Amino acid sequence: MSILFQSVKVIDSQSKYNNKTVDVLVNKGVIESIGNNIEPPKRCKIIQGKGLHLSPGLMDLHVNYRDPGYDWKEDLNTGIQASAKGGFTSVLYMPSNNPSTNSKVQVDYIRNATKGSVVEVLPAGNVTVDHQGQQLTELYEMSQSGAKAFTDDRNSIQKADVMKLALLYTNNFDGLVMNQPNDKTISSEGKMNEGIASTKLGLKGIPALAEEVMLARDIELVEYTQGKFHASRISTKKSVELIRAAKKKGLNISADVAIHNLILQDQDCATFDSNYKVFPPLRTSEDIQALIKGLKDGTIDAICSDHCPEDVEHKVLTFDHANFGIIGAQTVLPLALELQKELGLHTIIDALSHNPRKLLGIDCPTIEEGAEANLCCFSTSDEWTFNEENIVSKSKNTPFLNRTFKTKVWGTVKGSLSTF
């Protein structure tokens, strides 16, 4: 079946049709024609509506679908559905499973289990065995099986010598090492950002210093090894400054930020609602402004969902005892476009499509005639409310429940597969 998008505004910085309102015809998984008043062929699904935009399919640099090992929280099927609902056609799948992604066997399992899905699931392998920070995994073998990056996810690599070895080893095959900067000797048992809000609430704080000290260390190691490094989910003003300075030096460094760290701040924890408990923690308004500026000037490359499903047994607890993390796959784009005035639509879409793919060294889809269809269609004038009924994840841990949005994802197309 063909799909005809009528009078859609193309948002694709790599396309000659960027910013133009056109018709786009997809036939047999390929963009067959782009123009005005395209005649729909037989057996064609027509997509039309107010304020429709068409962008490349989105790419998420950080998702946990909890499979294998924790599939009562989420599984590959429900996770893929959530990402597709959010406009994503590709995701980087974190290795925090059981068994953890230590070898090509686990990489092959994820690739085979998700083959042919409307969302391309790209595995990330652990840097160290069972993300314990000690012994390096089969990095090269995993890369040969399709692992697109290496990370110990939330278990930040504490030992400098291990990080140094990982950067040196992956240099041999242009591998990407990702690390969430967090010095555990400083963050310790903290529950939220250390500051005025944590003092008022009587909660143990996580100092910005815990992130910044490790990030500074990693940057020094990148300069020493000339490795390829990505700072995951940065959250502080100083971190932005460190990355900006490193990029000016010409170091091969990139970074992303989780969408909730751009929207929420530490004061939002005042209700003691554990859905606001995330890691890295929600920071201050000053940090948020620095992160936004970092996205705008290219210091920060990408926005991610940090999709982290948790069941009620681990989340519906007192703030102190609840697990960190929220689901985010379905709400990234609507939340990001709340920042359209500050960032601009093209910066947001690039941070959610082209840039993440460039970091992983994979082909970036574009909206051109003859190209394979890899598309996200969304409206900026559809008011809707995000409630439990339209959450497709198994878990419901989100602070954005019952929030009203003006941006709505209509559907995605990836080759011959579609959610329309």
Sum up the structure in keywords:
420 residues; alpha/beta; Urease, subunit C, domain 1; TIM Barrel; 2 domains; eight-stranded mixed β-sheet; eight-stranded parallel β-sheet; 15 helices; 29% helix
What is the rounded distance between the termini?
Answer: 11 Å
Runs in which pLDDT lies below 50 for 5 or more consecutive residues are none
**Major sheet attributes:** 8 strands, mixed
Secondary structure: number of strands: 20
C-alpha geometry: globular
Number of helices: 15
* Named CATH topology of the largest domain: TIM Barrel
Q: How large a portion of the residues is in β-strands, by DSSP E?
A: 15-25%
CATH superfamily of the largest domain: Metal-dependent hydrolases
Pairing-aware structural class of the strands and helices? Answer: alpha/beta
Task: Give structural notes.
- With 420 residues, this protein is an alpha/beta fold.
- The protein folds into two domains: 2-54 and 368-418, Urease, subunit C, domain 1 (Roll), CATH 2.30.40; 58-360, TIM Barrel (Alpha-Beta Barrel).
- Helices cover 29% and strands 22% of the residues.
- The protein has 15 helices and 20 strands.
- The protein has helices at 76-85, 104-113, 139-145, 160-170, 184-187, 196-201, 208-225, 237-248, 260-263, 285-296, 312-315, 332-336, 340-343, 345-352, 354-360, and strands at 2-10, 21-27, 30-35, 44-47, 52-56, 58-63, 88-93, 120-125, 149-151, 177-179, 192-193, 205-206, 229-231, 253-258, 302-304, 374-379, 384-386, 403-405, 408-414, 417-418.
- The strands form four sheets. Strands 1, 2, 3, 4, 5, 16, 19 and 20 form an eight-stranded mixed β-sheet that branches. The chain has an eight-stranded parallel β-sheet with strand order 6-7-8-9-10-13-14-15, sandwiched between helices. Strands 11-12 form a two-stranded parallel ribbon.
- The chain is globular, with a radius of gyration of 21 Å.
